[in-house]
Request: fold
Amino acid sequence: MKIKNLLLVMIIVTGFYSSGFSQVVVASATPIRKTETKKTELILAAEEPEEKPKVTISGYIDSYYLHAFNNPKSGNLMGSGNVAGPYFAGRAFDRLTDQFALGLVQTKFMYSDKKSDLVVDLTFGPNAELGNFGNQRFMQPGGYVTGFYPANGNQSALYGTSAAIKQAYFTYKATDKLSFTVGQFGTHIGYEVIDAPVNYHYSLSNLFNNGPFYHIGAKAQYAFSGNAYLMVGVVNNWDALTDWKKQKSLISQFYFKPVEGWNVYLNWIGGHNDDGFKAGTTGAGTTSVGNVVYPFLTSGYSRNLFDLTTGYQMTPKFYVGLNAAYGMYNFKGGSNLVNPAGGGGPVTETAYITGLYQKLTPTWYGVAFYTNYAISDVVGIGARYEHFSDKYMVRYIGAVNNSLTITAPITVADGHLIIKPELRIDTSAGGVKYYEDSNGNPTAQQTTLGAAFIYKY
Amino acid sequence: MRMGKSGIVMSVIFLLVFGGVSAQYLPVNGSGKCEVAEVVLAEGFLKSTLYSNQLQWFKMLASSSDVTLSSIQKDSIEGRTAGNAEFLVYSQSGILRKVAGAIRYHVSVEVKDGKYRYAFSDFIFDYYKQDRNYHMVETGKTKPLEETEAGGWQKLWTQHRKTVFSLVSQQVDALKIKMIETPDTNNKPTEKKVDW
Reply:
């Protein structure tokens, strides 16, 4: 009796666990008549699988804690500003030391169907405001001219709800190969982006910090194949909600994939008078719009930035990348007289410009090498070495910098939580002491050690 | 029916043994690789009919919105069709659903008079990540489906393996139904009846 019961149990259990994949099966179903088959085929032909519209939400929050071994007296990592003039751009977003700092809160809404996409990418917090630095409502010393007006008596330096918009655009997919995008979108320039989960390193490069963040405009993209596409577009300028001039900037990107795992992006942006920080002086070149004054140089300038971004997954665990950029201003100069903001005028525009930037065609450039190795699914290690030159002080850093960043990301919780311990060593070159020591005096090197905490959903 | 102590112990042992096997979700062949394969008898079906039906099944698979089929090779003499299939797998669900990666595998069907053989093999997970243009792209890193462990993302990995098992099961069921369809010798279209 006992053995019978045992056998019964075994049969039941075996039946419960057996898969349908036995070795030989006799097909016993009644053959289906052709008419039914024909109907089935017709139904299959008529009912092409339909791509249903999708709505998705994603986002992240991040925070960080850093210690700077140069112990800057100011408590921030921006630089002393004493040697490099008014330039304080030692870091992009990770600016605070010896405190827990909130980075950014992102919520991104996306709608997608067969013919169109919509992206509304909202960000809040300190880094959101830094990313939208172009949306200050009025110009203040060292501030940024956005063209936003009219001013009023209650105006303050508040950013307004526009500061929450990192991206807001739609894409119309005219065909499988051609699409059009209009709105505010992240720049195509560069290797790194504002979104912490997308970048390997938490601390952003000088190439990122001295390049554009976003544009407002329209662009078209044509895919020649799965391995190459071309994008062209027209935008207002760099990083500004509104425009202060009629000329627009042109953008372009050519992408190609020479071999599987190797991506190459060739990028360009070019325009005239499109840098809101190149506000000149009052004088002959002044134009008033409403009650806000937008001084600019009468002779104008053009600005072009060329960028190469490439990455290659050499093995499933080892990745290398390169970002190189070269930018130039071309000021016309001239004999028109202007009054320099610091006094000492009037001087000719040529003298004014060469006094600021040493030449009428100041340039800047940078190159960064990236490499990372996935030790396991949980831990990786990566390094970035960057050389950035703004020796003509035409961008934000106003110095020549060499930087080494080492990061060891730890990814857990099914990919939701990324902890990034990071060491960064910045050295200013050319005898310039860009950073700040514990007495507030200039020093040539800044080394930070800390960690970032990123949670994404 | 009463079960003694020994019966309960044996049942528990049985459950533990086969429970471990079922946690694989996908069968594993002698080489330790995930493979779903079977020889199915189809009495009364000629090789030509089975071959035609297998082509129809591949066509169905190719038109599926979930699966991308590539590198299809057809050999009517050998009665064999094979191809590489791929589908995306996701993390989270609902409005939070995002592409986590892709599963690719090799599928082949071979026919003879009165029987056919199918095999789903070489299951590989391709890691995806978001690039600087916010597109989900392959990283080049892969993980074979026979690996049951995934440090730091075990729950998601188990979910992917379950998804593969479910999808492959559906494809096998559809294949078995399709293979035993018979061709109709009457090719005339059905005339519409008109009321008058």
Observations:
- The radius of gyration of chain B is 22 Å.
